[in-house]
Amino acid sequence: MGLINQVKLIDFTERGDERGYLVVIESEKDIDFNLKRLFYIYGSEKDIVRGQHANLKTEFVLVNVMGSSKVCVKDGLGNEKTYTLDRPNLGLYIPKLLWKDMFDFSENSVLLVLASEFYDPDEYIRDYDEYQKIIKKSL
Ligand code: TYD
Predict the structure, then answer these.
(1) How far from the centroid of its chain's Cα atoms is residue 134's Cα?
(2) Is there a smaller number of Cβ atoms within 10 Å at the N or the C end of the chain?
């Protein structure tokens, strides 16, 4: 259960006044890693499943800055956990080597993804059987 227990929800401070709200995320302060990349996912239909991969190196924090979605993390050993992201100040930290599925996107969902590494397609494992083999080998 080790790796999956490292997944955590993060409540970012919401700085609000009469003008509205603002959330700040600083590298190595509000998140544990040094941010190298961000991307965002939007326009995905409710029945679409995105992600469906694990990363050899990259750690992530996911924030639904608008709307909502669900994220299921799996450790390749039969353990899985599903989180709902539905607030612009709620983050989900996911360490490297966990399988991730994102689904159940609301119509207005904008899912912001903060990543610890630059994009490298070679560190993405997109086949679940291969992922399970890698995990079992690493035990
Ligand atoms: P993909 O990894 O399939 O997205 P998701 O995790 O949401 O399922 O990425 C979609 C496309 O975008 C794919 O062609 C790879 C490309 N891409 C980049 O070029 N850089 C990136 O940082 C990411 C995340 C994807």
Answers:
(1) 20
(2) C
SS3 content of the chain, % helix, strand, coil (to 5): 15, 45, 45
Catalytic residue status for 53: yes
Among 53, 61, 126, residue to substitute to test ligand 1 (most atoms within 8 Å of Cβ): 53
Q: Give the global pTM.
A: 0.97
Please say whether the beta carbons of 70 and 85 come within 8 A.
yes
DSSP class of residue 37?
E
CB-ligand 1 contact for 50 (6 Å cutoff): yes
Read off the pLDDT band of 38 (50, 70, 90).
very high
Is the CB–ligand 1 distance for residue 51 below 6 Å?
yes
**What CA–CA distance (Å, rounded) separates 81 from 57?**
21
